[in-house]
Amino acid sequence: MVVKIRLARFGRRNSPFYNIVVAHARTARNSRPLEVLGTYDPVPKPDPYDASGRLHKDIKLDTQRAR
């Protein structure tokens, strides 16, 4: 049983949102994963805590599940 860490795409057209998942290597991209490790939002958004006003991409990873 070979597994891979990859991105499963969700969201709408031109507004993607990804789950970072562990899935079997031979399954489809959005098929049922073994484990969901985190999320990735590639659309840049302004960070309210950053004074420079730059846009940031959001990555959230559950470190307890990734071990």
UniProtKB/TrEMBL annotation:
Pfam families: Ribosomal_S16. Residues 37-67 are annotated as: Disordered. GO terms for molecular function: structural constituent of ribosome. GO terms for cellular component: mitochondrial small ribosomal subunit. Residues 53-67 have a biased composition (Basic and acidic residues). Keywords: Ribonucleoprotein, Ribosomal protein. GO terms for biological process: mitochondrial translation. It comes from the Eukaryota. InterPro entries: Ribosomal_bS16, Ribosomal_bS16_CS, Ribosomal_bS16_dom_sf. The keyword Ribosomal protein applies. Gene3D superfamilies: 3.30.1320.10. The keyword Cell inner membrane does not apply. Belongs to the bacterial ribosomal protein bS16 family. PANTHER family: 30S RIBOSOMAL PROTEIN S16, SMALL RIBOSOMAL SUBUNIT PROTEIN BS16M. This is Ribosomal protein S16, mitochondrial.
